[in-house]
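Quick note —
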Amino acid sequence: MKLRMKQVSIKEIQKHLCSLEMKYGMTSAEFGQKYPRGEMRDSEKVMMWIRDYDSHNTLPLEGAKKTSITNISGPKT
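Predicted structure written out below.
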């Protein structure tokens, strides 16, 4: 199995996190607490979410001010 590497921007990661938050009805912070406790099923989407959540929390934000991920695309409804 070959691994594919793709360079993405912080904005792309934030956009992806926002779409997952809306789909699953929880913030990435809530997800980040549930995942290590085994409260989330291991699916491809969940694996991508934890990868992007960890990346968002550990990578420099290219000079941008760190804000709540949910607020980037607007409030959840």
